[in-house]
Amino acid sequence: MIKHSINGVAKQFGVRVRQQMKIRAGIYRIVTPDGRTLSLKRMPKGVGRARWIDRMLLRVRQSGSLLAWRNPNRPEGRRAYHLSKKGEIFVLTPWISGRKPSPRSLADMRACGVALARFHEAGLTALKGNFAYSEMGTWFATLRKRHCYIQTKMANARRNGFSQPINRFIKQHGPEIIRYARQAEELLKSSGYLNYRRHPRKHGILCHGDGGPSNFILNDEGTYLIDFETLRVDLRAYDLYRIIYNSCKDYQWDFSIAKAILDGYRQVAYLDKRDYKLMSAWLRSPFSTYLVVSGFKRIPFTMKRLRWALDSERRIGPFLEELDEYAASPSS
C-alpha cells in the first residue's frame, strides 16, 4: 500500500502517523506523534474469522498470557479491525520491542515452549461455547495433497519438464521422498488421530497455527506471542510440530533444540504419548521438499534448495528416533 493509504487506515483507528516503515507485505510499523509504536497488519481472512480471532485472543489475554494484540482500554484498541478502501481487513496492535528467540539458545527455546503451553492452557477456557474454525479433521487430506503435489513434480521431471540437473535429481531421489510421504501417512494412521478427530470438542484446543522463532518476542516482561492470522482450533501436537520444524530445519535437526522446547512446554502442560506420535507423523512428511517444489518466494525451486530439502528429510529419521526415546523416558 502507498503511504497515504496507510495513513488513511490508521486514521480509522483514531491514530495519526508521524512515521511508517514497511516490515514486509501487509505489515507496517507506525509511530504516532506522541512516540507510541504500533503494528498495522493486513489480515488475510474474512471478517467473521477476524472477529473470532479477536474474541479468542481477548479471552486468552485475561489469563495473563503475553500477546501482541489490541488493548480495548486504549483509544486505538477500541475497534477489532478496520477495512481499507479496497476492502482489506487491518488490525492495529502494540509493537512489541525485544528480540526474536534463537534456536542456538536452549534457554530461548525453553521459554518458547513455556509460552506456547500457557497459551494452550488459557485457550481451553477461551474456546468454551465458541468452537469454530477447526482444522482437526483435515490432517489426512493435507498430507495427501502434499504427497500428490510432489508426485506431480516427479511426473514432470520424467517428461524432462525442468532443467536437466533438476530432472536428474528428482528422478534419482523422488522415490525416496515418496517413501517418506507414505511413512508419514502410516504414522498418522497408527497415532490415535482417528479417535481424536471423532471427538473434536474433547481434544481440540486453540492453536497459534504457525509457531516458530519468528512468532515470539523476548523482552524483560517475558515471552510474547505475535502474528495470529493462522489462529485455529486443532490438536496441541500441531502447534508443537510447527515450532519444532521451524526451529530445527535450519540447524541440522539438532534434537537438543526440540528437547528444550518440549521441556519448557511440559513445565506447564502434560503431553500424552499419543501427542508425540502425532508430532512424528507431521515431522516425517517431506514438508521441506514440498516447500521447494512449490516454488515459495523464500524457498526457490533450485538445485541448492533441493539438496537442502533432501538433507533435511534424511536427518529427520534419526531425529524421530530421538523423539521416540524422549517420549519413552520416565520424565516425559
From TrEMBL:
InterPro entries: Aminoglycoside_PTrfase, CotS-like, Kinase-like_dom_sf. The keyword Transferase applies. Residues 28-265 form the Aminoglycoside phosphotransferase domain. GO terms for molecular function: kinase activity. Keywords: Kinase, Transferase. The keyword Coiled coil does not apply. GO terms for cellular component: endospore-forming forespore. PANTHER family: COTS-RELATED PROTEIN (PTHR39179:SF3), SPORE COAT PROTEIN I (PTHR39179). This is Serine kinase.
